[in-house]
Amino acid sequence: MRHDGDGVAKVMAAPFQSVSNKARYNTKSTLSVHINGPYVELDDFNAPADSVPSQNRSNASKPSRGKFYFPNTFWSRSFAIIGVIETLFTVAIETWVFISTSRRFDEAGNDDGTLRLRSFLGLYIFALFYELGLSYDALKHKNTFQLVGLCICNFGLFVYGIVQMKEIRETIDGLSKSEAAGNRLWNHYQLELILIPVFIGVCTILMIFVTWRLRAEFSWNIYQTMSADLQMNRRYTTYQVYIALLKFDFFFIFGTQLQVLLAMKDMKDHQFILQSVMIPVAIIILILAARFCRMEKKKSLMVVMIFMLVIVGSFVMVVLKIYSSTNSNDLAHFEVSLTLFSGLAVFLIGVTLANMVICMVNFGKGLKEHINRSHKKRQTLYPEYHGDEAGKTRFVLS
């Protein structure tokens, strides 16, 4: 570009080319000359129109990502890969031990004896798959606190893997006809059962490191959603922690109730029916707890809070029954694992209720609008094609 003596700008350049090479922009723009400097300002370019095929235009108005989310950064992919490899490796070993021990003791006529082994191994497999699902959910919604919770949960699986070895060894010894037979059977599974906590321990360390790297990415996402409002940022953080806690609550509630049901042999007993009903009721309560908080329904949340306190009371009664001297049930067979699950469930529900109260205090302070706006933002990758004004761009060539 050059200036002649009259101050009129003459553009001696190649024609403008679209970045995508798929469409040409309408050149009904203004070329203006400014006295303060030799530059041209191109204002209000129209969005791609006539030269874009109709199929491309229809695709441009749709979100580029479908309903299924794929991790799109190095660290999010790394976290996903660690979770998938950990799940496949551990579930393969657990499934092999589960099938092998079930066949061995079923042939020996020890149906009741295999119940304890099946509960340990089956619950561990379910925990791994559930954790993998939570990993996908945390990456999709960029929830740092859920990732931190997954690291803690993975460490819990590491500890439970060690406890599981002790419980399986005792169960095998009790079901075997002799001590020598028990030792031979234990040696058959010992190496694989040792590999599980070792592998999960290594994966836990890797997950902690990757979560620390993802913290910066997700923090920037929160900043974009909440802007620089520190108060709103704190409220959104409390909400994210609350939602993450509800997802972990479900696992420990389900794990506790499953072990209680396995300990009850009589399926016609009213206690068995009552405990069975608690699982779907707990799922509905947790879903409503998340929905009412997002909709800022204070009275509805207070009703949900009462139901959650009832669940806490039920778990406390289970623990008291385990260690009661007049215990007539078979809960004592699940003493270690049931105490661990029910204790963690009570603790997590207590923390969830505390966060629920804080969220209720934050109602009516603008968080609801921010959450809804952030949900709409995630559905569109190209907002510039939505609407006439949004399709305009502005360039300055100096």
From TrEMBL:
Could you say which residues form the signal peptide? none
**What are the TM regions of this chain, as residue ranges?**
74-99, 119-138, 145-163, 193-212, 241-260, 272-289, 301-320, 340-363
InterPro entries recorded: UPF0658_Golgi (IPR040410)
Question: In which domain of life is the source organism classified?
Answer: Eukaryota
Q: Which GO terms describe its cellular component?
A: Golgi apparatus
Keyword line = Membrane, Transmembrane, Transmembrane helix
Q: What PANTHER family does this protein's entry cite? A: UPF0658 GOLGI APPARATUS MEMBRANE PROTEIN C1952.10C-RELATED
What is the recorded name of this protein?
TRP C-terminal domain-containing protein
Organism annotation: Penicillium steckii
Taxonomic lineage is: Eukaryota, Fungi, Dikarya, Ascomycota, Pezizomycotina
